Amino acid sequence: MNQDRQYMDQVFSEYVRIGKALSSEKRIELLHRLTHGEKTVEQLAKISNMTIANTSRHLQVLKEANLVENHKDGKYIYYRISTNRIESLLNEIHLISEEQSPKLRYIEDQFDQSDPFIKVLSAEKAMDLEEKQDVQLVDLRVSKEFELEHIENALNIPYHKLENSIDLLQKNQPIILYCRGRFCPYANQASAYLNKLGFDAYSVNITHFEWHRHN
Predict the structure, then answer these.
(1) Which of these, 191, 150, 199, lies nearest to 174 by C-alpha position?
(2) Helices (H) and strands (E) in the chain, counts
(3) The domain 3-86 is classified under which CATH number: 1.10.10.10, 3.40.50.2000, 3.40.1190.20, 2.60.40.10?
(4) Phi and psi at residue 193, to the nearest 5°
(5) Which whole-number Å values give the CA distances from 20 to 16, 28, 61, 192, in the listed order?
(6) Which residues are in the HTH arsR-type domain (predicted)?
(7) Over its length of 215 residues, how does the chain's per-residue pLDDT go in tens digits?
(8) Beta-sheet pairing, 68-73 with 76-81
């Protein structure tokens, strides 16, 4: 019995070690940023609005938990997530939070209503629309993420290239936009931008994981 207890204590202790590494909104953000691709400490500090020293401290905690790894290239140190399962983990954290937190749902609703040109569809309505008529399904993630996995028949137009890729889209077909779910504001922003140009563009704030799950 004592041996069983010791085993369980050791297992749960390792779970707690990972949990402690995730117990900071800034470390969650850093992991989210790194799911987009590897970045230097300086790049992460800039986009997360932290000092380089503070960013380095958070990255060290994540590294000690084996959630990130790094390598040096010249004078820069690059970080990346240690496994693609981390993206799935972040997605599950969000889904649980969305189910259990009325405040989070309120924050999301407010963001959806922040621009009158944003049009949002639920996953079910987006899939129903795709089944009933021709639509343009657009993945706004960077190409490296798209190449790893994406929704079938989706067109990859990274958000930062959208303005220069308008010719790839049709105004006579609805456009369904997705990115990295609620972790990413790009689908809503792209919906507003395209609708102002006369397109019929809808944001669906789910990931490709969730799309496949609903299917």
Answers:
(1) 199
(2) 10, 7
(3) 1.10.10.10
(4) -60, -45
(5) 6, 11, 9, 38
(6) 7-101
(7) 688 889 999 999 999 999 999 999 999 999 988 987 899 999 999 989 999 999 999 999 999 999 999 999 999 999 999 998 998 899 889 889 989 999 999 999 999 999 999 999 988 898 888 887 789 999 999 888 888 788 888 999 999 999 999 999 999 999 999 998 888 899 999 999 999 999 999 999 887 777 877 66
(8) antiparallel
Element housing 70 (H / E): strand 68-73
Q: Which residue has the tokens 């799911």?
A: 35
- First-to-last CA distance in the chain? 45
Cα distance between residue 211 and residue 81, in whole Å: 23
For the chain, give every domain's residue range: 3-86, 107-214
142-146 contacts: CB < 8 A, separation 24 or more? 142/36, 142/37, 144/37, 145/35, 145/36, 145/37
Homologous superfamily (CATH) of 107-214 is: Rhodanese-like domain (3.40.250.10)
**Tokens encoding 173:** 């077909």
